[in-house]
Design brief:
- The complex is a heterodimer.
- Chain A is α/β, with parallel strands linked by helices.
- Chain A has a domain of about 130 residues: 3-Layer(aba) Sandwich (Peroxisomal Thiolase, Chain A, domain 1), CATH 3.40.47.
- Helix content of chain A is about 35%, strand content about 20%.
- Chain A is built from 14 helices and eleven strands.
- Chain A has a nine-stranded mixed beta sheet with strand order 3-2-4-7-1-8-11-10-9. A two-stranded antiparallel ribbon of chain A has the order 5-6.
- Chain B has one domain.
- In chain B, strands 8-7-6-9-10 form a five-stranded antiparallel beta sheet, with no helix packed on it. In chain B, strands 2-1-5 form a three-stranded antiparallel beta sheet, covered by helices on one side.
- Chain B is globular.
- Classes of the chains: A alpha/beta, B mainly beta.
- At the A-B interface, helix 4, helix 5 and strand 5 of A face strand 6 and strand 8 of B.
Chain lengths: ~375, ~160
């Protein structure tokens, strides 16, 4: 893949409700920060890409509501409805097309709607929606299928929540820094067994933005560019009933493609840090297995061993993850941004020593239907 | 609304206005739902390439990307693949009413089908369910079925 770099990043603080800010305000804050980080002004930007979801926003063509806030006037503009990892992949494509430098921003205000109604509406209206099934309950079916198949315990899932909420204490933009124990997670109420309250990411408001540039342009920027070494994506069946929910086929396929681009043959040996989807605690375990960091069914024990903790061999979700800050769609871009900051050495209190190569994962659709994997590194 | 008077930052409510939709069931969806309504029977559709039988019936096998036309009958009994007992209250979008908690969800493989169906199960103790258990559909009584998935009240564990 031709060298393309992320040359600027910006994140708003993620909160349960950002009542002082409209979606456009959040986008403006994120874009302003990303431009400042890159050392560029809006006049240096050729392409503007936005990410949003009409149902979450309660607006038809919701992307249009933020066009002023992202400086899109007279620019090459497009929108991507899905998670930030997918939108940022489109930004990379537009840069690779030779159309210039791209500002990509994505926003989410979970506080403005009723979350179970919105996530219920992603299911088929003929065959599934009437059940009232939504993100938590669909994930509970997946968690049960996965845990039964591999003998993964609720305590192992709880260990993910403990670790990531703990990491969030070191991240100033994280929403839910918590000092909790496995017993606390186990004692929290069941929402849909085996998922308990502290196994779930919160409802969140936030926005993020990145500036993506070709190698030529990246040379001129003030910040240290972080290079896109590989991107892969893959999609599984829409109907939950068409999938074996315990499998991670789409993630394995996406990882294979991204690792192929990046020359990674031994993920555990070559990757220094991973930011993966942990909107529900069990998902981090499935993500680690799908990304090839351990055998299927092995991620629970890997987590309990401390290998994925901040001081471990492969720190996972050093940012605190989506379980601590969950602005849907923004989460994938935040995973990429965390990798960028870690590779640059700019992650502050949760900086991991010597991150040369980092992996970010994002998902779209129920129970990880569609998967996107990024490999980022410090050298072109 | 009253709360907003005390709040520094205001918000505009959408109110009770609805956005009604009318989703076509299509040829196959109509067949599938009509057979449940009129005959309490399930139908699947078979891929000419891989031989997988899909429930509910639809026209395309995703993995093979082949059009399917061969309808095959499938049983109203099957196997429990996985399940969850839901404990949090949630307003049912189709009725506007909150379903009494707890209630059970099940992923079910009907005999003769390769794909799974998701529906309610009449058991609310997760300790009493196990993957592999046998289940059967319980239909809404005659005269009350309308041609929707709600014509199946729920699935029940076959206790022998």
């Amino acid at each position: 893949m031709e060298p393309v770099a992320i040359v600027g990043v910006g994140m708003t603080e993620v909160k349960r409700e950002r009542a002082a800010d409209t979606v456009a305000d959040l986008v403006f804050e994120a874009c302003t920060k990303a431009l400042a980080d890159s050392g560029m002004g809006i006049d240096d930007i050729d392409i503007v890409l936005t990410g949003s979801n009409d149902f979450f926003d309660g607006r038809t063509i919701s992307s249009m509501a933020v066009m002023d806030a992202c400086g899109s006037y007279d620019k090459n503009v497009s929108t991507v409805e899905g998670d930030g990892t997918f939108g940022a992949a489109h930004a990379v494509m537009r840069v690779l097309a030779g159309w210039g430098t791209c500002l990509y921003c994505v926003h989410h205000k979970g506080s403005e709607s009723v979350m179970p109604l919105i996530t219920n509406a992603m299911f088929d209206p003929l065959y599934e929606r009437f059940l009232g099934i939504e993100a938590v309950t669909a994930s509970a079916l997946q968690a049960r299928a996965y845990m039964d198949r591999y003998g993964v315990t609720e305590q192992q899932c709880a260990a993910v929540s403990v670790k990531n909420h703990g990491n969030a204490r070191l991240n100033p933009v994280a929403q839910m820094p918590l000092e909790i124990t496995v017993d606390d997670v186990m004692a929290s109420p069941y929402l849909a067994d085996p998922i308990k309250l502290l196994d779930c990411g919160p409802i969140s408001d936030g926005a993020s933005a990145v500036v993506i540039a070709s190698a030529d342009r990246a040379k001129d920027v003030s910040g240290r560019p972080v290079w896109v070494k590989g991107i892969g994506y893959s999609c599984d069946a829409f109907h939950l009933g068409d999938r074996d929910l315990s499998k991670v086929d789409a993630l394995q396929a996406a990882a294979k493609k991204a690792y192929g681009d990046a020359g990674i043959t031994d993920p555990s040996g070559q990757v220094d840090l991973a930011e993966v989807n942990d909107a529900f605690s069990y998902m981090e375990l499935m993500s680690l297995e799908g990304l090839g960091f351990c055998e299927r069914g092995g991620a629970g024990a890997l987590t309990e061993s401390g290998a994925t903790a901040l001081g471990g061999k492969l720190p996972v979700n050093a940012s605190g993850g989506c379980i601590s800050s969950n602005p849907v769609l923004v989460t994938g871009l935040n995973s990429i941004i965390e990798c960028v900051l870690q590779v640059r050495g700019d992650a502050g209190d949760h900086q991991v020593e010597g991150v040369g190569t980092a992996v970010a994962q994002g998902v779209n659709g129920p129970c990880g239907q569609s998967q996107c994997v990024w490999v980022l590194g410090g050298d072109a | 609304m009253a709360d907003d008077k005390k709040r520094m930052y205001l918000a505009i409510e959408s109110g009770e206005s609805a956005q009604p939709f009318r989703w076509s069931a299509g040829t196959y969806g109509s067949k599938f739902l009509t057979e449940i309504r009129d005959n309490k029977k399930f139908w699947g559709i078979k891929c000419p390439e891989c031989g997988r039988v899909y429930v509910p019936i639809r026209s395309v096998c995703g993995p093979c990307y082949r059009e399917m036309t061969e309808l095959v009958p499938v049983s109203d009994e099957g196997t429990l693949i996985t399940f969850s007992v839901v404990s949090f209250g949630f307003v049912d979008p189709s009725t506007g009413l909150q379903r009494p908690v707890p209630y059970g969800y099940a992923v079910i493989q009907l005999d003769g089908a390769d794909s799974y169906l998701i529906h309610f199960i009449d058991e609310t103790d997760p300790e009493k369910m196990k993957a592999g258990m046998r289940v059967r559909a319980v239909f809404e009584e005659d005269g009350k079925r309308t041609g929707s998935m709600m014509d199946i009240k729920h699935f029940e564990l076959i206790r022998e």
